[in-house]
Amino acid sequence: MELSVGAWATLIAGAGVAGWIDAVIGGGGLVLIPLLLAVCPGLAPAAALATNKVAGFSGTTSAALRLAKRLPPPRGFMLRFLPLTALASGGGALIASSLDRNVMRPAIIALLLLVGMIVARKPGFGSGPGTTRPRLALLVAVAIALYDGAFGPGAGMFLLLAFSTWLGADLLHAAPMAKAVNAATNFGALCVFIIEGQVWWSLGLVLAVANICGAQLGARTVLRGGDRLLRIALLVMVVVMSAVLALQQWG
Q1: DSSP 3-state assignment of 167?
Q2: Residue range 208-217, pLDDT digits in tens
Q3: pLDDT tens readout for residues 16-72
Q4: Is 145 exposed, middle or buried (0-12, 13-18, 19+ CB in 10 A)?
Q5: Overall number of domains in the chain
Q6: Membrane spanning segments where (predicted)?
Q7: If 0-12 CB within 10 Å is exposed, 13-18 middle and 19+ buried, where does residue 5 land?
């Protein structure tokens, strides 16, 4: 499939914006996947998801490294969380085709609205320190990883909430942990897509560079904005994701 100069420019810009969104709060796929399908109408949905994962994995990994350099995760976190969540995401990608998205969307919308109400009604949410339940945090992270491989939107945001709630971290210190696990979930799903031959590599690699640029800017934004920025971004993403999913379901 050949793309015009305008199409390349649109997708590269979209990948940069998606990288920024993913680094700040998560949900960049809501930008890049529809853009891929709109600009490349002959592209199969599975190929769009796979190509998005190339960009998402690259950008999220770069953001995770930048944030972890300034705010290192707890000792042992990577060894406990990353392998299991990568495997769970790969499993989610394997069963993705068998899931009914018309059933999943309303459930995710309800969960998003619940999350939004909790964050809005509790001004101190995510300010840490809070309850520390590492086993529960790991179980929830694996569930989110499975969701990311199978469906995906907002996995990074859900991870941020989970780690802030059950690892006793404020939102800022939960961010590098969430990005690291999100990178692992992207990797797990991407491996499945590669095996299935779904990735459009020439496009995916170009978009990965743009996504990394956006993610680096997003990581800098997070470090400068702190907990207040992440709280606002979280509430905005809840509204945006709910609206997008509702439009896809009932629009």
Answers
A1: strand
A2: 999 999 999 9
A3: 999 999 999 998 988 999 999 999 998 988 899 899 999 999 999 999 999 999 999
A4: buried
A5: 1
A6: 29-50, 77-97, 103-120, 136-163, 229-250
A7: exposed
